[in-house]
Amino acid sequence: MFNGLTRHQKLVLIIAWLGWVFDVMEASLFALTKQPMLTEMLGSEQYKAIGPQIESRIHVAMLLGWSLGGLVFGIVADRWGRSRTLILTIFLYCLFTGITSLCQTPEQVQVARFLTGLGIGGEWAAGAALIAETVPNDWRARAAAFLQTAAAIGSIVGVFVNLSIGGLNWRFVYVAGIVPAILCLVARYKLEPDTPAPLTKIGGALQKGMPWRNLAIAATLGVIGITGGGLLPFWLPNLINEVVDKGDQVYWKNISMIVLHLGTLAGVLIFPPLTDRYGRRPMFAVFGCCAAAMLFITANFGTHIASILILAPITSFFALGLTAGFGLYFPELFPKAFRATGSGVAYNLSRILSAPVPLWIGMMAQENGPAAAIGVAASIYVIMMVALIFAPETRGGVLEE
Questions:
Q1: How far apart are CA 124 and CA 138, in angstroms?
Q2: What's the predicted TM-score (pTM) here?
Q3: Contact yes or no for 275/325 (Cβ under 8 A)
Q4: Which residue segments constitute the domains of the chain, with CATH numbers given?
């Protein structure tokens, strides 16, 4: 599977993949536990009245933490080194996931999820640059595909954690979230420390100026990809509530999440090789158009559990599949001295800009139901099509030093 890579390159890939599996798992836990968590904290009647709005606020807090973590730790990774920054960010999301289990109010959960997001966002910025600079140029698409399988595997692992111990109490799910992150943290010390770019070189890059056009394009792609890709995974439990009896809801929420992310797994494996064959821009356009169409179809025709189980994985194939291109494409847009900073700013600025969307969807879901909110939000992919007109094509190039 890893033919052509050195032992160190294989180790970097495997440990980075494990880190991303666990941080995606951490990110998915709230969607799986939000109903029992908030019902316990608010009471059943209050949850029915304002539950979706509270869920949206907590989700936004995590997005903002994710954004700030990526912005801050992207700069730290350029100045302090990718490997050491990854160790620190893994420790952060490990710590605050555990702290979530102690929360007693929605406000406390909001703070804990914000702090968890700091670590998760920081890991992506440092990890994307580390992988791009570690593997050979002809391996970068395969590495991006392999790493992005963490988006599916991590979510599926979260489902199994919830299935195994979530029925006892939602708090145990967050306690269990500490264990794999600690194991990954220990494994990280086996990596050889990388050499950060000299401070004078970073200063020079800043004086020359960021490639602002590339940053704007990457951030726009990120806003749409992150917003669109997150719609169905976050609101799928709410859709299930609409179509199955109360006694069956927990079972079908977990099953539907597994089925959804089987589509994610296929999408993230297929998207990067397609961009190597046909180009980055054309494949972002194809997957973006298909994601918009499938989100609209799922929202309007996912009225039975059978139709949801068919439509959800197809939707995630496109909507989450295209996110595999971010770790491949974004580092190609920036020089080495600014690569983690640029990638982190682009990816996490997009999370800041996308943060109001869940609030709007939450209000719309409260008024008209989650299906109507998802269907309307699918129109955001039009913005991606416009941005791609101005995007550079980097297929076949080498990373700029």
A1: 21
A2: 0.70
A3: yes
A4: 7-390 (1.20.1250.20)
